[in-house]
Amino acid sequence: MNIKDRIEYLRDEINAHNHAYYILDKPTISDFDFDKLLSELISLEEKNPDYFNINSPSQRVGGSVLNKFNSVKHKYPMLSLGNTYSATDLMDFNDKLRKLTDVSFEYVSELKYDGVSISLTYQNGELTQALTRGDGSKGDDVTANVRTIKSIPLKLHGNYPKNFVVRGEIFLTINGLIQINKDRIDRGLEPYANTRNTASGSLKLLDTSEVAKRPLQCFLYHILGDDLPSKSHFENLMYAKRWGLNISSDIKLNTTIEQVIKFTYEWDLKRTKLPYEIDGIVVKVNDIDLQNELGFTSKYPRWAISYKFKSEQVSTKLNNISFQVGRTGAITPVANLEPVKLAGTIVKRASLHNADQISRLDIRVGDTVFVEKGGEIIPKVVSVDLKSRDLFSQKTNYITHCPSCNSKLSRNEGDAKHYCLNNENCTPQLIGKFEHFISRKAMNIDGLGVETIELLLNKNLINDVSDLYSLNREDLLPLDRMATKSVDNLLLAIEKSKKVPFEKLLFGLGIRFVGENVAKILVKKFKNINTLMNSNKEELILVDEIGSRIADSLISWFSSPKNIQLVKNLQLIGLQFVSDFDDSILSDKLKNMKIVISGTFIYNTRADIKKIIEEHGGKNVSSISKNTTFVIAGNDMGPSKKQKSIDLGIALLSEKEFLAKLN
Ligand code: IVH
Asked: Is 524 a catalytic residue?
């Protein structure tokens, strides 16, 4: 098989496995074998840039960084739907339609996915464009981001129309949001509140590789085009499924509005069992000719309507407000409620978010409050029943001091939350720090629960994480729930953690904004803790992906004498503060060369190109001067830079020419 055929074969094979995994939910290959195919494809494509194809499955990992999104006109306006809230509303909708037409017709009932709408264009079976709704007539071109969403096929199969537009909803599953939030909490960032806003925010990220990390999903529900296979909306969706598009199986063809109403009732009950959120049902006239005949009002189609579920609300008494202190010192107010049943579970606590939220709603202890489980996973207090407020109720004054250590709280401009700054002695912060240090993604020390950490802290057996390494059997055996075997296992796990690589240790130190990924980047760049500790802000922010917020946080952490001492102690114990990361020079083809990178590129990110330069002994410099050896010129290279290179007689190499130079 020649190279071109092998590349085509690998692309088809990978597309088929992606389809089986992400759309049919029936994996046909092991992760290991899949990765093998993908890395073979990536390597062949790298070596043969002539066969580049933007819709190759290798492009799903993202890489390009955009400056902004271009605004593009929709081929068909992208309208929203009128809302109804009751069975009577649906009957009215039906009566109106039946009056407008003499012929009998069917409805299609679909779920209303709670995400952000997207319009995809396929030409000759390939995804060519993805636009957000925008103002309905023009939307943002988010094609590069959409290419990273695995349930959106980049290439179709079967007998698809040459040109068509398909619309759908991009959303996050509930578990997807939990996964993103775990990572954010690890990095000391505020968790996102709901799936819809997070999906929409993810689609607007400028760095496509960041989008690729978000577990976004997509269902498609509306096909538009001149040569669609059928005049039935339902049938078209069934065809689209065969072309590889992700169409939900929870669609029903109904002949009467009563059946539609039954569908809404059924799903109102069943929706809590879905892995994603739906906020209603969409009802559409099935016959496309009839749809066209009925047409649109100024805002909505006459042939479709949405039925919105009521967010179940209950009222209950607010017994008191407590304040939680997180690992980073962030304070979260929590409403402690008289237990009440809501959407299938008993709710005792609800989030109050922050001080602004409490004063906006004027929430007071003793109030009767309404609680709702909306898009948010944690129930929230949505309003206060002012009519039943006690005459003598007291306005809530937000706490000024830490509920645990009594230090004065502070709130920086731009922060929604108040913080306790006593990170060194405040117990919940300390417990949080230990929990973080021993967690799987950090030192992976199993067998130490929160209660045990608290006991050890109270007994003064541990003060900071370095003390874990001096614990012995005598310290641990007398503690509750610590039998000989569990003590031995724990001590073994502590001992084993001394070998955990530097990036995990750095992450485990719990420096604000230093999550797993940032820790990896820092270790790769600085190699050992001493270099990192002695770097100033300018040096830190020179590193890709390290901004001034992270740099400030690192500098502040490393300027605390207690933290410096902690690092010294951990070094003496023998923990890994040096990286064994091997970035040996691949060649000296670019030795002594000063190379400028300008613009954006097709095959590599700017960071990758910089890495390639360094791997071959060159130096990446930022500005063009007479000492520059050559410029790697990408798309959107600024005209003044271009002119300057020409004036100084410095060669401009395309990305391909540069890569060819190294082969
Ligand atoms: S049909 C003209 N079908 O709900 C047809 N929309 O409130 C317009 N949505 O803008 C859309 N699930 O973002 C349709 N099965 C579904 C849907 C759906 C969710 C969203 C979509 C739309 C909004 C209207």
From this structure: no
Q: Is 139 in the pocket of ligand 1 (CB under 6 A)?
A: no
Residue range 294-342, pLDDT digits in tens: 998 878 999 999 999 987 789 999 999 999 999 889 999 999 999 998 8
Query: What global pTM score does this model have?
Result: 0.65
**What spacing in Å lies between the alpha carbon of 117 and ligand 1's midpoint?**
7
617 CA from centroid of ligand 1 (Å): 54
Residue 378 CA, ligand 1 centroid: distance in Å? 26
Write the DSSP string, 593-616: -EEEEESB-SSS-HHHHHHHHHHT
For ligand 1, atom 17, name the residue with the nearest CA: 112
Choose, from 47, 68, 99, 112, the residue flagged as catalytic.
112
Sheet of strand 83-84: strand arrangement: 83-84, 304-308, 278-285, 107-113, 252-254
Q: Kindly state if the Cβ of 297 falls inside 6 Å of ligand 1.
A: no
DSSP character string of 131-148: EE-TTSSEEEB-HHHHTT
Average pLDDT over residues 68-97: 93
Q: Which residues contact 403 (CB under 8 A, 6 or more apart)?
A: 322, 323, 325, 331
* Domains, the chain: 3-53 (1.10.287.610), 73-308 (3.30.470.30), 313-391 (2.40.50.140), 427-499 (1.10.150.20), 502-573 (1.10.150.20), 585-662 (3.40.50.10190)
* Three-class DSSP category at 280: strand
110 touches ligand 1 (CB under 6 Å): yes
Stretch among 154-158, 189-193, 213-217 having the lowest mean pLDDT: 189-193
Mutate to test the pocket of ligand 1, among 110, 133, 219, 221 (most ligand atoms within 8 A of CB): 221
Cα dihedral: 462, 464, 465, 469 (round 10)? -50
**Distance in Å, CA 240 to ligand 1 centroid:** 17
Predicted confidence (pLDDT) per residue in 135-172, tens digit: 899 999 999 999 999 999 999 999 999 999 999 999 99
Any ligand 1 atom below 6 A from CB of 301: yes
Contacts of 86 (CB under 8 A, 6+ apart): none
State pLDDT tens for residues 600-639: 887 788 888 888 898 888 889 988 998 999 999 988 788 8
Instruction: State if residue 171 touches ligand 1 by the CB under 6 angstroms criterion.
Output: no
